[in-house]
Records
---
Amino acid sequence: MQDERGLIEEAHSLGGDYFLLKIAAPRIAATAKPGNFVMVRVSPSRDPLLRRPLGLLESRPPYIWLYYQVLGHGTKLLSGLRPGDGLDILGPLGNTFPELPGKRVLLVAGGRGIVPLFHYARAYGEHRPLLLLYGGRRRADLPLLERIKTLCLQGLFIFSEDGSLGQMGLLTDGLEKIVREERVDATMSCGPEAMLARVALLLKSRGLENRASLEALMGCGFGACHSCVVLAADGSYRKVCDEGPVFPLEEIQWRT
Amino acid sequence: MADLTVDLGFRTLKNPVITASGTFGYGEEFLPFFDLDILGAIIMKGIFREPRPGNPPPRLVETPAGVLNSIGLAGPGSEKLQEIIRRLHTRTNTPIIVNVCGEDDREFAEVAAVFSAMDEVAMLELNISCPNIKKGGACPAQDADHTARLVRQVKKVVGKPLIVKLSPNTADIVEVAQAAQDAGADALSLVNTFLGLAVDLEKRKPVFANVYAGLSGPAVKPLALRLVREVCRRSYVPVIGMGGISSGRDVLDYILVGAAAVQIGTVNFYEPGAAVRIIGEIETEMDKLQIKNLSEIRGKLQT
């Protein structure tokens, strides 16, 4: 874990609210693994005060890639950064997805939930059979598709709610069929809470090994403030930052 | 070279920077960032007798230059904290202070006695001012009589120096401070967070389950600085000031109004290495202002 001054190498607008940053952060890039995230200080001023948690889309020393959607004040400021600008980045933080060598793994990505799963596919795709189920509201919410085609995948299934890309519907509409027909051993999911809750319900008692990466509002990102908790199935709270962000899907109490 | 040492009367600290309870975890979380030996002291996250889950999320929202929190003193219970303290003590020589909590007066005394008996613990801080336990933010530090009763009771069962942490959410903090010191507090620390409210306009509901929450961060510094000054003018025990400190100059501001030492809090969240920077800045500022010793400016505000 480092508090590193990253240097922005490239800043791309991907249309709509979506942006991609390529940042030179050699110390973080050297140790980051799929599932890890970083806390980014979007402004040296005191507003916003807190850092923003962002997943790592990719990490290839000396670079890391951040893909994000502008949703508020903090990400808006982030989108104003240009190549040559510096950025304080704390990371790599949190736990990681298990590698599961030899297993047939289905990645289930809803919208910007693609981030840690893209990292997983980039890091491990060449060593095991990987499939990706990727869905969003409409074509504009899936701007990473061209980059996804450069990943080593045995299967790619696209859904959009309005039918503007791939099959029409929610990605969870296709989940059971893919799991059955593709003889999937394990799943790794990331996306909106409602999607993850649905995935958990559909995969219940199928004997697969399932993991989900969660998103949360965070104060610090390294376990000190205890603000990013999620309710576990056993009724206890878990800190998303240092007990997660990756949890066994069944360990979370999903609100349906 | 400026001398940063602080004499609390009952203990000398190598510098005035103490990490505030609830903002520094149990110390271990910060080991990757810096050598904890550089700190004046470390205060552990508040502890009750039994493990506590804390409040339901959301527990934190940002405000301009501040944060509202409603963590609700989540914690592992006093037995587990003893283990953590023993472990931490092998990693640092910095004095460890335990922030003692209780659902009632008896629990405060019971928890205080447990940690007072530990060799690894230097002092205790009595947390009678957390706004996130009872609905509406009520706490013992809002009442001078209750504060005096509680401090007397705890003093009877502890052998270690006792710091009493005060709340800004009271009509007259000076009255409460006097009650605490008259009842035997060895030092006072102030202020805990300011009661605040965040609402969800769409849902027509408060953001936090506990309705009110505690405001901290740079936004509260002028409010806290005034209260620290008021208390310092009437107190005969050392006062540890806190509220919105994020620089060496902020620390010196608190010393100038009379604080013996300070606590840094919210800044630890967004800048985990802040303590190192702040201690460095105190030295630089003192050299620049030709202050050799903190006692040269302590309480020397001219009005």
---
Amino acid sequence: MMSLLSAEIAEQVKKELADLAGPVRLVMFTQEIECQYCAETRQLVEEISELSEQVTAEVYDLIGDSDQAERYGIDKIPAIAVIGAADYGVRFYGLPGGYEFASLLHAIKLVASAQPSLADETMAVLAELDKPVHIQVFVTPTCPY
Amino acid sequence: MILAHRIAVASPMVQADMVEATEFPHLTIRYQVMGVPRTVINESVHIEGAVAEGVVVEKLQEALLEAQGGDEGEGTG
């Protein structure tokens, strides 16, 4: 199968991920008969994992591996849970293409370092949280956020 | 949006999903996504467009207050 990442992009990704602060697991969920985006998302995480010693890809079936889906709170596919020393609740749903690919690389570096670099005021508010918060950010590949 | 993921890393109480809108049309309908980015916090609070960190924190507090005050029990969905 053709690579999703061109040699040039692969080289850039390799550089970006060269000094990761710790190991990162890309836990990907798909299904037996893969939708187009599922197949591409799986291929993408596999290709990324080959570009860094610190990054590993795990692929699960949403139905067949329902215990894993439950563990990571996955309810739709394609899904990627980006896991560092802990599961920080960082998820991607859908193929992270375009600008979202950059977001995925950022997320990998973020969970590796576990340093969110937020304002002190933000950290103070977050420290007070006593209930679960679920943030969903809807994006498209052409949206730079 | 990196900010939501940073917030998730900062707090064990927060999960942040980046959702590719065109791949999940049922969610774009459910959350009335007309433009991106659109941020939905705990089903109830919405943020249109990219906003500063302070605004997201305000909205987060708003979502929590709403959960305390007017929990209508939407079920497990």
